[in-house]
């Protein structure tokens, strides 16, 4: 579904990504891990269109989207959440999620002027039904009318996920969906991600630091370090890789116990 071919990204003399290639298969949960500053969010920003790679290309469903605008990528079926929450704090939860349906609206300025008598109202009600289904699925009915800015961090994370799901994307990019959550909130979010993948058929690309979650729900994992790809594979294989253990877990090479003098 998604392929990155030799993607590099530079900001002046700083290399955020260097010759990174990988692919995400349709229907899987694919995780990107690595230390802070490894280039994980930069990679997601290149995929979503927030950044344009300095070199290389990105293909989605067989089409080259390297130079496609972010709104067009959303229309093609790419949704995302952000590491730092990007909700409209003064708007209700319902209205924040409705923003995710905006690119699907067909009513224009003239039909909007005759809202109560034309098709604009019917269209909005149809989209609202979709949003209510998402609200039920994510179990946030009790906050649907609350202002997003008044909610706890964990609930705001769920609202941002709901807005991304409202796009009905083929591929959803999750940038640290469990950051700042307690254990119970993390377990709920992990179950939700699996349900989106298994019941709603969404392919997931996720950045996450919680290794327990990554090991439990990912089909495959890629590791970045200083903007370069270290390895890619099944979670257990990746976590057993010696370079990964050094770079990500901070483990140094150690001499065998019998070789250490008393």
UniProtKB/TrEMBL annotation:
Alphabetically, the GO molecular function entries are: ATP binding; ATP hydrolysis activity
Q: Does the record carry ATP-binding as a key word?
A: yes
Report the GO terms under cellular component. plasma membrane
Listed SMART domains: AAA
Which residues are in the ABC transporter domain? 2-251
Name the InterPro entries for this protein: AAA+_ATPase, ABC_AA/LPS_Transport, ABC_transporter-like_ATP-bd, BCA_ABC_TP_C, P-loop_NTPase
What are the entry keywords? Answer: ATP-binding, Nucleotide-binding, Transport
The name this protein goes by in its record: ABC transporter ATP-binding protein
Originating species: Muricoccus nepalensis
């Amino acid at each position: 579904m998604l392929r990155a071919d030799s993607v590099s990204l530079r900001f002046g003399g700083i290399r955020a990504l260097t010759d990174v290639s990988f692919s995400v298969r349709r229907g899987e949960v694919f995780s990107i891990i690595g230390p802070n500053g490894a280039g994980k969010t930069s990679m997601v920003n290149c995929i979503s269109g927030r950044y344009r790679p300095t070199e290389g290309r990105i293909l989605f469903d067989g089409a080259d989207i390297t130079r496609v605008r972010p709104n067009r990528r959303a229309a093609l079926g790419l949704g995302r959440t952000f590491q730092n929450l990007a909700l409209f704090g003064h708007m209700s939860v319902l209205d924040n999620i409705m923003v995710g349906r905006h690119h699907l609206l067909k009513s224009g300025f003239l039909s909007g002027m005759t809202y109560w008598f034309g098709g604009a109202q019917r269209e909005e009600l149809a989209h609202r039904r979709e949003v209510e289904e998402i609200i039920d699925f994510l179990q946030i009915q009790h906050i649907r009318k609350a202002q997003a800015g008044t909610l706890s961090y964990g609930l705001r994370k769920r609202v941002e996920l709901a807005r991304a799901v409202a796009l009905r994307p083929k591929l959803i990019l999750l940038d640290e969906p469990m950051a700042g959550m307690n254990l119970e909130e993390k377990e709920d979010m992990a179950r939700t991600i699996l349900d989106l993948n298994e019941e709603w058929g969404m392919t997931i690309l996720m950045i996450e630091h919680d290794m327990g979650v990554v090991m439990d729900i990912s089909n495959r994992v890629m590791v970045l370090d200083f903007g370069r790809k270290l390895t890619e594979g099944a979670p257990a294989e990746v976590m057993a890789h010696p370079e990964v253990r050094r770079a990500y877990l901070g483990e140094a090479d150690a001499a065998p116990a019998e070789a250490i003098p008393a």
